Amino acid sequence: MKGLAFRKLSRSSSHRNHLLRNLVTSLLEHERIVTTVAKAKEASRCAEKIITLGKRGTPTAMSSAQSFLFSHQHSLRRVEAMAKRYADRPGGYTRIHLMGHRKGDHAPRAILELVDNPTDVKLDMVARAMAREADIILRRAQKNIPFAELSALLAAQADIPLEHDERFAPLTRKNIAKLVRYRGEKAREQLRAKATHYLERLRAAEHVEGTYRQDTQRWDALELASPSRGRTLMRPMTGKRLLAGALSPETAAQVGQIARVQQPMRGKRGIVVRERTVTTPKPSVVRLAKGIYAKRYVRNSAAPARSCRSD
């Protein structure tokens, strides 16, 4: 019975071929499709072969591509366009991005796309990384930086190419080099433009959203919608999430402030109130994650910082 059920669920060779032909045709038409990881790997191999046939351009090669693809009138024009786009590229015309799991059967999903397409996912991800690193680098140097100086890090430099700029992380430089290897200065300009755009969004989000705090309006709406369920949910938050070990702006502003406080002390003549100068220190314990805290390293102390988990 188990073998019979497996044979019913498995695909025949003709069904599998039609599935791959349909996936490759859709990939050439839309330049990006979302499918499972196994189908994406098989469709990627077939798409590479079809584009290679298009680069040959002989009648025999075009006839082989036509026999594989659906909607010949439109797909063959797409094959010719892809052959012109990848004329200088020896291979690697497709790219696979993992995309979590499908909601119904929890199958692993993936994005299969043609490289150097107008909405390249990898180019967008690298531009976001460049914007984050530029923001972090200049924030370490100075707290309040005008946007003109902040975007100067992403400006074009005549002596240093973008992929050799050591101010970026090694992995970011490696990804930049992959993008500009066959696209040249055009890819560099797109990266600078997108990174500047995301840098503007980072700065704007900080001014609009403010610090990370509880979203009281949304919490009240949840309580009104379903009071019994609202009490079981975590309180929703709004604003920019702090990094592990980072201090909120309110707490950071209080660190280092000097104040005079009165401290009652018990002496021979009773309780004596004395004044002393107190400097507000950094908090000794910081929150790393939900229920996980770490103690800061205290100077002149031999004990290293330890992490603890709260129940």
Describe the structure.
The chain has about 300 residues and is an alpha+beta fold. It folds into 3 domains: about 10-115, Ribosomal protein L17 (50s Ribosomal Protein L17, Chain: A, Alpha-Beta Complex), CATH 3.90.1030.10; about 120-210, no CATH class; about 250-310, no CATH class. It is about 50% helix and about 20% strand. It is built from 12 helices and 10 strands. It has helices spanning about 1-10, 15-30, 35-55, 60-70, 70-85, 120-140, 145-150, 170-180, 185-210, 215-225, 225-230, 250-255; strands at about 30-35, 95-100, 110-115, 215, 235-240, 260-265, 270-280, 285-290, 290-295, 305-310. The strands form 4 sheets. Strands 1-3-2 form a 3-stranded antiparallel sheet. The chain has a 3-stranded antiparallel sheet with strand order 8-9-10, with no helix packed on it. Strand 2 and strand 3 (about 110-115) form a beta hairpin. Helix 2 packs across helix 3 and helix 3 runs antiparallel to helix 4 (about 60-70). The longest helix is centred in the middle third of the chain and has 25 residues, at about 185-210. The chain is elongated and about 110 Å long. The chain starts with a helix and ends with a strand.
